[in-house]
Write a structure and sequence with these properties.
This protein is of the alpha+beta class. Helices cover 27% and strands 16% of the residues. It has 4 helices and 10 strands, in the order αβββαββαβββαββ. A 6-stranded mixed sheet has the order 3-2-6-8-7-9. A two-stranded antiparallel ribbon has the order 1-10. Strand 7 and strand 8 form a beta hairpin. It starts with a helix and ends in a 6-residue tail after the last strand.
């Protein structure tokens, strides 16, 4: 009812269907979301980036990891110092207790017990082992920055230079058939001599008989990299086509 809608404004989960414009376009930089036309590269997970954008990201993350490593090492040093001080305090306490226990009272050796309940009521909180050092709960900083999308370790040498062939409308096309690549599966044919990898449709490459030589350059293929497919507003594309906003519910 109209009255119910009036009071439900701002409450409940809302769902919106994403159109094609909101989806990832094949050939765009997965960081800047602009067309990767100048120096396109791909990561081992198949995401395409503009080289300048991904290198800037890696530099920023590397500096951040370096700072985290310094903080982690300083924390470990602090914990080690505190642990050494605690060990020294316990050692002195044990020596004092031992010396006190060796004293002879009324001609007999008396053993001094700090708390006799410790022998019979060992489950009490004050008699439980000390908690683990905070340094054991810290996570060791990663050696390499994570990939922006796959979160797998990534370095500059992992980037694969691509040769994205485009039509007059700046759409990426297959280097062999020149068919536009949108939501189809595309692959990058990586060759050994460091030349840019040619991007072709997987179906076209399979129709050629999966040759060992690149059908465009004639070089020997060293690796085939599956690239991430572009998004679509159609459910059959396999990607997410809805966005949800979670808000407080009326009770």
């Amino acid at each position: 009812s109209v009255e119910m809608k009036k009071y439900s404004v701002g409450y409940g989960t809302t769902t919106a269907r994403l159109n094609g414009i909101s989806q990832y376009v094949f050939g765009d930089c997965a960081l800047s979301l602009h067309s990767a036309e100048e120096h396109p590269v791909a990561t081992p997970s198949g995401y395409i980036y503009e080289k300048a954008a991904i290198l800037e990201y890696l530099l920023t993350k590397t500096q951040q990891l370096k700072k985290e490593k310094q903080e982690y090492e300083a924390w470990l040093q602090k914990c080690q110092t505190e642990e050494n001080e605690e060990d020294e305090r316990k050692r002195k306490a044990q020596v004092a207790a031992f010396e006190e226990g060796q004293k002879v009272v009324n001609g007999k050796r008396q053993r001094v017990d700090d708390n006799p309940l410790k022998r019979t009521s060992y489950w009490l909180a004050e008699f439980q082992p000390a908690a683990a050092s905070a340094s054991q709960e810290l996570q060791i900083p990663a050696k390499r920055p994570p990939s922006p999308n796959s979160q797998k370790p990534l370095s500059k040498k992992d980037l694969v230079v691509l040769n994205l062939k485009r039509d007059s409308d700046s759409h990426v096309v297959c280097a062999v058939s020149e068919r536009s690549i949108t939501t189809q599966q595309a692959i990058a044919l990586v060759t050994k001599k460091g030349a840019p990898a040619e991007v072709v449709l997987e179906q076209v490459f399979n129709d050629l008989g999966k040759e060992k030589l690149c059908p465009v350059t004639g070089r020997k293929i060293s690796k085939i990299l599956h690239l991430q497919k572009g998004g679509s507003s159609f459910a059959a594309s396999g990607g997410s086509i809805e966005a949800k906003t979670y808000r407080p519910s009326m009770t």
